[in-house]
Structure prediction request, 326 residues.
Amino acid sequence: MKQPVRVAVTGAAGQICYSLLFRIASGEMLGNDQPVILQLLEITPALKVLEAVKMELNDCAFPLLQEVVCTDDPAVAFKDADYGLMVGAKPRGPGMERADLLKDNGKIFSTLGKIINDVASANMKICVVGNPANTNAYILMKNAPNLNPRNITALTRLDHNRAIYQLAAKTGKAMSGIRKMTIWGNHSTTQVPDITHTTVDNAAATDMVDSDWVNNEFMPKVAKRGAEVIAARGSSSAASAANGVVDHMRSWVLGTEEGDWVSMAVYSDGSYGIEAGLIYSYPVTCQNGDWKIVTGLENSEFINKQMKASEKELQEERDTCSDLFA
Prediction:
């Protein structure tokens, strides 16, 4: 059997993690032959609830789950961690401006970045889930210079999955036949869901739907799906977000399928004219635990304009939090 890997998870007593942790422990995320040690971080008032989650994890008797550590100390949670799932973040409250949320969560992620830099594995792979995810990942990266910036990513797989569902529902086709969906940019309402290069049962998706539906229904529907869930449920997406994390990490660690790609917010290398260094969502392929941006795609003037608008938002978010960079 393989040596166990350490998976640090923040916000571990929250709703997303209640859907996420059991799937990690079962082997669904990292493979059914990979033992795991879960290192779970929560704020002090939530430790009692976290202990109950630990009881349930243990009561599932997962063969791959070697140990569960519950703590309110980030230095303990991230000690020698191989993977980091940054789920915990302050939610946006009534009357709170996005800039306020950026500042509050930025302080959290700058602190965690410094701790990760000191105690985690130098090869740690991180997926930031807590919003604003792209910029939180950027702040963490700036405060963890010992980590390879390629190993710090943010979650847009949830948006990717939402887009696949919307296209399948519109065309009446099975989701399993949809390939090469793309989410460009920020995990926000400026994101760019793009079917330009998507195929449905090996046929061009653009031949199956009209541009009016794409521009006026599909793109805004995907971008605003989170708000739609909140309006219906009274709280934000939890199970679908957890599923996105599992998909994101599994693709990254175990590889993408031949002839397909996935969407990940990753360290920009300047591809498609996007500023290098931003955490920006691209179509990527994954192999041997690494990702590669899909290059050479030809996009319309409309898509390029939308991509630049999302880049501008990320630049503005970064500038708002510039005092938090190490």
